[in-house]
Structure formats: C-alpha cells, structure tokens
C-alpha cells in the first residue's frame, strides 16, 4: 500500500492536555489493492461497451452489404460489353464490361456511365435547367395558335417543344436512376466503414481484456504480499 506521511504541527494544550491542532494535516493512505480493484472494474466495463459496439457495428455492416447486394441484383442492371464501352470512350469502365451491378462500387461506376449519357442529351443541361426552355417553347406554340399562324408554323413549334420535353423526360429518368445508384454506393460505403470500426472495437477489446488480466494478477500478488 501507498503511505503519504505528513509531519504533524505542535499540538495545542488545553487544561494541561494536548489536543491536535485543527490545522494539523492527517496521513492519507491509499491501498494498492484498492487501486487495482478500481482499474480492473473500469476495464471490465469498457470491455463490455466495446463488445456491444463491435457486435452492433458488425450487424450494421452485414445488413448494409446484404441489403445493397439484394436490391441491386433485383434491378438486373448490367454494363455494356467492352467494345461498346470503348466506342463511347469509357475505357475506365471496361473492367466492368458485361457484369451485373450488385455492389456499391459497381453502382458508383454505373452512375458515372449514366452521367456520361446525360451530358450529351442537352449539351450538359440538367432536368432543372430544362424547365425554362420547355415553358418558353410551349408558350410559343400557344401564342402561335392564338395568333392564327399557319399549320406548318404551329407544327414546327410543337415539334420543338416536344423535343425539349423528351430531353427533359430523359434527363429526369437518368438523374433519378443515377441518384439512386449513388445513394446505394453511399450506404455501401457506410457499411464498409462500420465493418472496419467493428474490427477496431474487437481489437480494443482484446487489448483491454489483457490489461484486465494483468490487473487481476497484480492485485492477487499485492494481496499475497
């Protein structure tokens, strides 16, 4: 055990008897065995928390991986063959040629493939960007009809409006699918991070339990001594 010794001050005499000074420090004694007990108990609690965290993180990682794979497989999305990808200038995706999309990494790659097509639909415009041109084209058709323009003029304006609407619809579908694939990739990434965190937690549990065992051994030796 650990002793802290303090030299006492001169006692005060009262009616011939000596009493301790009110300011006299007292000795503080901390038993080593008590310290070991506290540290061991703390180690056990921390180990239990780490085990619970590791189990939950493992469950989350497995759930994310299984869910992502199951949902992607049900969509039956596959990459084009290598020749098609090379013709479109997507040599970066040739390694996925002909494969079905069923992992988060493949989902991100296919989202990139879709984005390349979207960029060529309306000169890089997005679904939101196409809102104003479509409204202008439709207003032009309405104005031509109200003004009594000839059928050929109205038909030409209508064809332009229909083309813009078609581009906007294609952008909407492509952007929606791309967003869903990227969300899937994000959840897959979170699952991988959870798996790594679970491994770290279990390693920490091993270290903590080793320290707890060392503390128990030291406590036993201290008690024997």
3D architecture notes:
- The chain has helices at 32-75, 82-87, 104-119, 131-146, 151-224; strands at 2-4, 12-14, 17-19, 28-30.
- The protein is mainly alpha-helical.
- The chain has one domain.
- A two-stranded antiparallel ribbon has the order 1-4. The chain has a two-stranded antiparallel ribbon with strand order 2-3.
- Strand 2 and strand 3 (17-19) form a beta hairpin.
- The model is unreliable at 1-9 (pLDDT under 50).
How many helix segments?
5
Strand order of the largest sheet: 1-4
Global structural class: mainly alpha
Shape: elongated
Tell me the series of helices and strands, N- to C-terminal.
EEEEHHHHH
| Overall tally of domains | 1
Sheet-strand content, in percent, reads 5-15%
Give the total of beta strands: 4
Secondary structure: helix percent: 55-70%
- How many angstroms does the end-to-end distance come to? 10 Å
**Chain-averaged pLDDT:** 85
In short:
With 225 residues, the chain is mainly alpha-helical.
List the helices and strands and how they pair.
Layout (H helix, E strand, L loop, with lengths): L1 E3 L7 E3 L2 E3 L8 E3 L1 H44 L6 H6 L16 H16 L11 H16 L4 H74 L1
Key traits:
225 residues, mainly alpha, two-stranded antiparallel sheet, 5 helices, elongated, disordered N terminus
